[in-house]
TrEMBL record:
Keywords: ATP-binding, Cell inner membrane, Cell membrane, Kinase, Lipopolysaccharide biosynthesis, Membrane, Nucleotide-binding, Transferase. Its main location: membrane. Catalyzes the ATP-dependent phosphorylation of the 3-deoxy-D-manno-octulosonic acid (Kdo) residue in Kdo-lipid IV(A) at the 4-OH position. Its EC number is 2.7.1.166. The lineage of its organism: Bacteria, Pseudomonadati, Pseudomonadota, Gammaproteobacteria, Pseudomonadales. It is an enzyme of class 2 (transferase). It comes from Marinobacter halophilus. InterPro entries: KDO_kinase, Kinase-like_dom_sf. The active site is at 168. This is 3-deoxy-D-manno-octulosonic acid kinase. It is a peripheral membrane protein. It is found in: Cell inner membrane. Pfam families: Kdo. It catalyses: an alpha-Kdo-(2->6)-lipid IVA + ATP = a 4-O-phospho-alpha-Kdo-(2->6)-lipid IVA + ADP + H(+). One of its GO terms (molecular function) is phosphotransferase activity, alcohol group as acceptor.
Amino acid sequence: MAKGYVKNVGATGVNLVARSFVQQFSEEWFDPLSWGDLAVPVTKGGRGSAWFIRSDAGDLVLRHFCRGGLPGRFIGREYVFTREDAVRSFSEFRLLDELFRRGYPVPEPVAAGYQRRAGLFYHAALIIRRIPGAVPLAEFASGQCQKTWQAAGECVRRFHDGEVYHADLNCMNILVAADKVYLIDFDRGKFMRPGQSDRWKAANVSRLQRSVSKCLSEVDDQIRDQLWQAFLAGYGSADQ
């Protein structure tokens, strides 16, 4: 299967662009200031480095790769450049391209880019198509939402059965739109080798459970447990 994107070297950096966007794409797309009022900061889960974009090509999401935690306070967007294949935005874009073309419920990748900085560093950015009407799973927090959580479990299990590792599986990276569940934010994600230990899958689910406890901390304990059990029922349904 041919790749769904092309590589080009622009005036400011190197880019991967989906074939369906080649004619419209400009390197300025990676700069939120170039969009003016058409760029709106993502306030939930964006870490101040993501924007919703209203463009002639449709609604998009721009994300600048930024370090979290304590390192992020000092080095922000700086990543050490070792080789092009290891650039964070390129790795995520290529994974999304493969998943999207295989029919997995992920956002359509639009473009990825990086710019070399002084010394050994680079800045990276990624653009995806925004999923219309998508809402984080964390917002489905009532007793009437068990079917949604069950569907989320089925979705995660599909990725795990395909040996797809998500490095940051949490309530904000599982989106629900029109009764369909999607996974987003595949930074550091990858295909695992078939036949190796499945411990990473259990660790993935445990990570999500910790996120549920944190994001739904104000929800009644009984309801939170019902939702989590619904997720596990969906996740385990493939065994039945």
